[in-house]
Specification:
Length: 231
């Protein structure tokens, strides 16, 4: 269900259940969590096999859950999304085809979301009485703003790639999303790690700026020769 390979600088993770549009079961989520948690590469690239990125939660799994099981399943999805968000690696979602529900939520947890021209995104949970519970109600308004988040979540509508880009659900549109991950991986791994740490910092502004200055000094010292060569 989860395939993983590395070229040394990019860990490519493929959701490989195309007949089910890469919908995730408990086993699939646990496997994805483990691969992301143990990745050592500076960039992680997440993609789906076949015509979809990810349909989110497997509905056959969800239908069999009681209330307690539903809460545990939501918490598992939240852990996976948090692994993507807090990984030292820069995480890139390559969205070719549909990203729905939990699939959209996993993409939202990634640092960069690259869609092909045929990518479509949506949160259809409201159409059958649910909502995205893998951190979607937290990340969606933070990324696209409260008004857009309410529109997407309360209508259940599907967004084409260009509208998703305008809204901020996508970072960019490219015919080859994996090339974006490869391009990011050409930069110094330590700098990528520090950039992600700084940009993801949600502490108060003064302490953020203090840590920013400290990190800048550390990187300047580490890359002094490269900087001097550009003068």
């Amino acid at each position: 269900m989860i395939d993983s390979r590395s070229n040394g600088s990019v860990r490519t993770i493929r959701l490989n259940r195309p007949a089910a549009r890469n919908a995730l079961t408990v086993d699939g989520l646990e496997a994805l969590e483990e691969v992301v948690r143990t990745a050592q590469e500076p960039v992680i690239y997440l993609e789906g096999a076949g015509p979809a990125f990810c349909a989110g939660a497997d509905l056959d799994t969800v239908a069999d859950l009681d209330r307690e099981g539903a809460e545990a399943f939501a918490q598992l999805g939240q852990r996976v999304a948090r692994e993507l968000e807090t990984a030292e690696a820069v995480t890139v979602a390559g969205i070719d085809g549909s990203a729905r529900g939990g699939g959209l939520e996993l993409a939202l947890a990634c640092d960069v979301r690259v869609g092909t021209p045929g990518a479509t995104l949506g949160e259809p949970g409201v159409t059958f009485g649910l909502f995205g519970a893998w951190g979607g109600t937290v990340r969606l308004p933070r990324i696209v703003g409260e008004g857009n988040a309410l529109d997407v979540a309360c209508t259940g509508r599907v967004l084409e790639a260009k509208e998703a880009l305008r809204m901020g659900l996508l970072s960019r549109i490219e015919s080859d999303p994996q090339a974006v991950a490869a391009s990011i991986a050409t930069h110094p791994a330590g700098t990528l790690r520090v950039l992600k740490e700084r940009l993801r910092d949600d502490a108060d502004r003064d302490s953020q700026e203090t840590r920013e200055a400290t990190a800048f000094g550390r990187l300047l010292e580490a890359h002094a020769d490269d900087i001097a060569a550009r003068r």
